Amino acid sequence: MSQTDSTSTASAPHGASARRGPFRVGERVQLTDERGRMNTITLTPGTAYHTHKGFLNHDALIGAAEGSMVENNVGQHYQALRPLLSDFVLSMPRGAAVVYPKDAGQIITMGDIYPGARVVEAGVGSGALSISLLRAVGDGGYLHSFERREEFADIARGNVETIFEGPHPAWKITLGDFQDAVVEQEEPGSIDRVVLDMLAPWECIEAVATVLAPGGVWVNYVATVTQLSRTAEAIRADGRFTEPDAWESMVRGWHLEGLAVRPDHRMVAHTGFLMVTRRLADGVTGLNLKKKAKAEFSAEDLSAWTPEAVGERAVSDRKLRRAARDAASTIQTRRTQGKNTDTVEAIETSGH
Q1: Which residue, among 141, 306, 119, 271, has the nearest Cα to 196 in the 3D structure?
Q2: Which residues form the tRNA (adenine(58)-N(1))-methyltransferase catalytic subunit TRM61 C-terminal domain (predicted)?
Q3: Is 239 left (phi over 0), alpha (psi -120 to 50) or beta?
């Protein structure tokens, strides 16, 4: 390796080296068979990937170039590639529903998350959005994530450290309620962007207004129309933010085969609503835009914000513990196998 290459590698953003070079022990690899079916495995020496059509030794992939074509013991061919972020998010251990890639991409763009930005988010869930936010702010940025449940925090930590090959220098995670903890740990007006994925974001208006800098962007991700309406009306009534914009996105793939080009029969439709608003300067009141009607909420409406009421599936403690163990074991395997590989290389280099 030349001096220029060494300098480039040393100064590369955190986790970038994990995306280059041959496959390594402990790495996740996506295998695609001859029928287009995909499976993700974690490379472990001496083990094999088994299907009803034979087995493929992991050793055949360790050290191979990305994009290799490998063959199992009965001649079945597999295409081997590193999972993209979108693939990783949909296959990683999880305890809560993840923010889909189509929504994460829009949060980054419409929320104007830039390198070096200071961002806070809540809740963390399984860490899918945290990974996208960390990639956007970079090593020189700052992401402070707040999560109420320790099990979710453990799962998120394992997934983040897996994809970045260790702790990310820009990331901090805190257990606790966002509206209380964020004002205790962040200076007023010190945050550039706030991203909330929670049941009742309107309860956090005071906290957001306190820590968000003038001109800063507040992004909300909610699942239902009633949550969307309640949040929008609360933001308007507060007066310290711009008129909120809201939308949803749907992704429909296309079937491409010769002249048989048509939309797929399935699509990724509604996953959640996104809403964006911006913090005004202190002492400024937002524009009083004329509205035809004002939404009213009954006492029953305001007391109905539970996970079950908005359609979230309950996650058992057993499932959460298993997901946390899976996330932690992946990064631990990577670290252990990496150390073993370094030891072998050192012995070989010394000539012993």
Answers
A1: 119
A2: 90-255
A3: left
Beta-strand relationship, 171-175 and 142-147: parallel
User: Kind of pairing, strands 254-257 and 171-175?
Assistant: unpaired
Question: From the CB of residue 228, how many other CB atoms can be counted at a distance below 10 Å?
Answer: 20
pLDDT at 22: 96
> What average pLDDT does the segment 335-348 reach?
54
CA atoms within 13 A on the CB side of 67: 3
Give the architecture (CATH level 2) of 87-302: 3-Layer(aba) Sandwich (3.40)
pTM, two decimal places? 0.80
Class of the domain covering 3-83 = alpha beta
Residues 6+ away with beta carbon under 8 Å from 122: 145, 146, 147, 178, 182, 196, 197, 198, 204
Q: Exposed, middle or buried, 330 (CB in 10 Å: 0-12/13-18/19+)?
A: buried
Per residue in 181-233, pLDDT (tens digit) is 999 999 999 999 999 999 999 999 999 999 999 999 999 999 999 999 999 99
Closest Cα partner for 96 from 127, 61, 72? Answer: 127
CA distance 302 to 230: 9
